[in-house]
Amino acid sequence: MTAPGLVVVDKPSGITSHDVVARVRRLAGTRKVGHAGTLDPMATGVLVLGVDRATRLLGHLMLTEKQYDATIRLGVTTTTDDAEGEVVATAAAADLEAVTEDRVRAALTSYVGEIDQVPTAVSAIKVDGKRAYQRVRDGEEVDLPARRVTVHDLTVRAVAGAEVQVSVRCSSGTYIRAIARDVGRDLGVGGHLTALRRTAVGSFDLAAARTLDQLADDFVTVPIADAARATFAAADLDDAEAVDVRVGRRLERPLDGLTAVFAPDGAFLALYEPADEGSRAVAVFV
Question: Which of 40, 69, 82, 182 is flagged as catalytic?
Answer without folding.
Answer: 40
